[in-house]
Amino acid sequence: MRTPAETAPNRPAAATGDGFPFRVAVVGAGPSGCYTAQALRKGQPDVEIVLLDSLPTPFGLVRYGIAPDHQGAKAVSRQFERVFAQPGVEFLGNVSVGNDIGFASLLENFHAVVLATGLGADRQLAVDQDPDARVVGAGDLIRLLNSDPDALLRHRPGGLESLGTEVVVLGTGNVAVDVARLLSKSDLDLIASDVDDDALRAVAPSPVRTIHILGRCPSQLAKWDASMVRELAQVVGVQVNVDGTPLPGEPTNSPRTTVNVRFEQVPASIRRHGGRIRVTTHRAGDSGQVGHVDADTVITALGFESPAAHLARSGGLDAPNVFRVGGPATGRLGNLAENRKLAADTAKDVLAFLRGQVQPRRAGLAGLRDRLPASAVDFDAWRRIDDAELRRARPDRCRTKFTTRDELLAAAAGSAAPPSTPLATTGPSTTQEK
Q1: Of 71, 111, 141, 155, which has fewest CB within 10 angstroms of its CB?
Q2: What is the pLDDT of residues 163-178, one digit of tens each?
Q3: How many Cβ atoms are within 10 Å of 133's Cβ, its own excluded?
């Protein structure tokens, strides 16, 4: 019986001679990278695929970007686990391309390279603002509540400060709704989640009392899914008002949290005012109609910046055998359905390129072995992390994640994880009300 590689249309003979006619490296093991690997294997079952990630854990946005109370969406990782279980598909975590391994090494050892690095830091708001005004990125906040070790490390030296009782969220996408929902939920609402309880109690010792969501667009152009807003309105104890009109939800005479959504509000400045923060806005299309909202913290949910600079500086990114998917291709994160569609299209492009010409011999993973850091994490090591996190789950939580790279690497090695470094907090540290 002939293999799929032998029967593929217009496909030159295999050049590697060891069962893998093509070898593809995917930089980034988040949903875009995993969906790409899945689609590549569907189109060419005998392609070797190596997914590299700077974090010790796979799944990227699924693990650290999807809100911790949306476990249904996070369950897509089970699909990805089946891809990694296939022979010839490898995960290499705790490996930074551009630092630990040069990009040139990937081009030297693989027939094609797919950039699936997602996007970096939260996009900054380009308005006049006091440098010491409390402005927090929504993406960074979600990563904190998901136990992202790098996000926690950035905040650990000075500790996490309470966001206060009243916050402003700038932006009307799904991430803005995620933030509002997580900051307004009680402990009972978070049962079966994998929220980082220590981080949540630091930034929101109790559910935030008032959340103002400001969008510069008209209501019909909001980028969030309507179902997300309905879900927020259905949280017990939460009242959502859109331009002054209450949304139907759980009835309550004294809401725990009030969410006020206002559209066509263009931020003009963020200034310190009377010990708090004042966001000055003007009506879209009318710079003379000025208003303001006072709060304790401003949270920006405006999208994300381009990928890490160290990879952007690498040579060879514009080579014909380098492809982009997800954030590096579109400039936005997108949802899982969008990522899957884009990954399928990218996989078709990769395979069409590889089948269009005779490919030289490439070593693939074997060519990287002596260049990998000793602390690289393979998929078996990730399973040890996964098992350990499930075993240490706190009551009412589906898992309790390790919060530092040292803990993750210790679990990957199968040894007892070192004690967690306490996360310093400022302000009250009482548990959220029931």
Answers
A1: 71
A2: 999 999 999 999 999 9
A3: 17
